[in-house]
Amino acid sequence: MESDWISAGDIEKYGYCPLSWWLSLEEEEVTNEELKQGTKDHEKMGSAIREVKMKEARSLMVENLVLWLAVAATIVSMFGMTFLSPEGFQQQVFLVISMIWLLAATFLLYASERNLIKEENFKEERIMLVLAMGATLLTVFAFSLTLTDENIAMIAQIISLIWLVGACYWLKVSLTLEIEAEAKRKKYNVADGKIEYVDEMEDESPMLVSQIFRVRGRPDYIIDKVGYQIPVEVKTGRVPKGPFFSHLLQLAAYCYLLEESTGKTPPYGIVQYESKEFVVDYDSQLKKLLLTKVDEMKNILESGEVHRNHNRPGKCANCSRRELCPESLA
Asked: Which of 18, 28, 58, 117 has the fewest Cβ atoms within 10 angstroms?
């Protein structure tokens, strides 16, 4: 049943106040202006992270393209040299070199294709890669010739220069993308590391699900650090001296979801505020606390009995559901 599932967002609300979470289950729309603004800021942050991921992915591809152009320019140039110096020994040396280039190009193309994001597959790059491979094969063919033709050599040199000009252009494109992505990272305080998952990109970032505890959720983004997937939860508004308890619970939920879905336990997670981020160790104690709270929530869903868990008027005053709350202190 759909009602059996508990989201990581629900866990965050429960950590703030069980009664506030309970009231949110039947809430149709958030009326608190501060929360509305927070939602807008959060969406803006998500779009920025998505843009960083796309720019960095495209920059990587363009870097590969520059490599292919440089390879092709070198090979075409050697192709021309064979017509100026068609001596047997030189032909054999050039043949060996061209075969090495061909093998390297094949391997790098394979490695590149394995790391590409589907929506980032640009047709221009693929055309350039095919032409580079074609230039390599033409060079192999040319090494078998014994004729001397300065016109062919000159044409080959001109083509290689064109390839190099293209390489320079795409290198500029790559550097521009890299600079833009880095500027976005600094502006929005995006955590360091390769971005693997972004909540905004639902087609590429599936919901994380725990079939065991019926918990699910989408972290704002996930970075790759030394082979581990690290969840990052972004929070807008006031920057605290330390992460709020409710935010710790939500982050713990994402760590657990990654642990179950990938089979690899994240060593930590990150709670990111506007000007500060906190690294939170995901240990057995935090995991136990999370699962205890999940059990409490399930019991409340079954019994329907829930109460406020604090005596802080200030907390109630900042709660968007205070007007509906039967136990509000504000």
From this structure: 28
Domain that holds residue 249: 2-31+191-317
Contacts of 243 (CB under 8 A, 6+ apart): 251, 271, 278, 280
Number of domains in the chain: 2
pLDDT in tens, 257-288: 999 988 899 999 999 988 888 999 999 999 99
- Is there a domain that residue 15 lies in? yes
Instruction: Give the SS3 label for residue 95.
Output: helix
Q: How does strand 215-217 pair with strand 6-7? A: parallel
Single-letter code of the amino acid located at 258 = L
Residue 92 backbone dihedrals phi, psi, to 5 degrees: -65, -40
pLDDT at 231: 93
Count other Cβ atoms within 10 Å, centred on residue 148.
12
> For the segment 130-179, what is each residue's pLDDT rounded down to a tens digit?
555 555 555 545 544 444 555 666 666 666 667 666 666 776 777 787 78
Query: What are the residues facing 216 on neighbouring strands?
Result: 7, 209
Q: Which two tokens stand for residue 132?
A: 């580079």
What's the pLDDT at 230?
A: 92
